[in-house]
Amino acid sequence: MKFLPIFSLLLAFFASFSAEAQVRTGQVYHLRSSLDVHFYLSAVDKQTARKTYVTTNQTTPTDQASRWTLEDAGGGYYYFKNGGGMYLDVAQASKAAGARLWLFNRNPSDAQKFRVKPSGDGAYYIHPKTNESLAIDVYKANAAPNSVVWCVGANRSAAQKWKFIPTTSGRPGGSSPTQPASNQVLIPKAKMEALGNLVLSTLQVKLNNFGPRYRDSQGRINWYRANASTIQFMGETSTFDVPEYVHGLRDKMHFVNDIRSRSFSANFEANRFIIHATFEEDGAEIKGMCSNCAKFREDNGALDFNFQNNRWKIYLRLVPYGDSFTFEVDEVKFHGQVDGKVFGELFEGLVQRQLEPTVRQALSRQMDGQKAAIARAIKQGAAAAGYRWDAVRSVRIVGSNVVVTP
């Protein structure tokens, strides 16, 4: 089964939400993080003085540090005027990822101009004019008292989504900002972990690009096998390619040698839903071969490498899909070690640069193709456990629960 690259699918999906946000100038808002219904864009220790850094905090109707009035900055940009009279500002007018935000006197610089774009689920992304490839983000996706808010590369995660809640009767949205809506379904994290493990019970992965010796189209001796890696999931199997790696004057080649998954288990780490994957450690996981060596030295002319503690973490997003919600792969990280003479650490870097993104894209394609099946399994499993809904407008990880909003 042939899949489109996940990035193309994501771009097509988000393109439907590219219109400008329908927020209003002159309106006072509380900006609630999509990570946690209890936390809002505020200022450190709820201060409103010049050069006070912006963070996340809980709020009350009288907290000026978490009240923001939108003002027209021209060209589709907005100023964010804080309740204390200062303005949201990119510190030092930095264009770099990692730039902090603080409060500053009103001025016409680009550091105080921001573009607001809808995320498609009722929240918004906020992009600084200094560098619109960045977005306002909660550090490490950890909404907590005085958690750092900064500008990093736009990644569409919940850490970059903000709900604009108009202040009415002195309250955000006219009600307590810390209470979820009464029609929300709260699924305890432990129940969601059980559902995740049920859905993942059929997942199997094999990583391989090593095969029998042959001469390629250029007449070189080679052992590379294209599309020899596989993912099996929910009754569907797909193949994918792990690129070959060649280095050295004598064409030393290194191949991924039939690494098979052992187990997958899902759990939460703070507000992130993670698959913990383990893989076998039998024999040489990275096989070294030398194509220009004498035939009797082909198998020992390049070093082999073994994986130790071969663990991976697959970070998932929970996203609405149809009348339920499904998984999307956010990132994949290798957490083991590569053991080998002299160059073990070098090959750990190679795994991170080459194998991590390859696995992430392959898993993304597979799960994207199985979205409907995943969503159906989640809804059926949740209903069996007593959690029911007719439709899903948004799904968020909040405290000890997964909050499903119909």
Give a short overview.
The protein contains four helices and 30 strands.
Describe this protein's structure.
- This protein has 4 helices and 30 strands.
- It has 406 residues and is an alpha+beta fold.
- It folds into 2 domains: 14-179, Trefoil (Acidic Fibroblast Growth Factor, subunit A); 195-371, no CATH class.
- The strands form 8 sheets. It has a 7-stranded antiparallel beta sheet. Strands 2, 3, 6, 7, 10 and 11 form a 6-stranded antiparallel beta sheet that branches. Strands 5-4-1-12-13 form a 5-stranded antiparallel beta sheet, with no helix packed on it.
- α2 (189-199) packs across α4 (371-384).
- The protein is globular, with a radius of gyration of 25 Å.
- Residues 1-21 and 169-180 have low confidence and may be disordered.
- Total strand segments: 30
**Hey, roughly how much beta strand do the residues contain?**
35-45%
Regions with little confidence, pLDDT below 50 for 5+ residues: 1-21, 169-180
Terminus-to-terminus distance: 33 Å
Largest sheet strand order? 19-18-15-22-23-26-27
Structural class assignment: alpha+beta
Largest sheet: 7 strands, antiparallel
Radius of gyration from CA coordinates? 25 Å
The share of residues in helices is 10-25%
Number of domains: 2
Q: What's the pLDDT, averaged over the residues?
A: 83
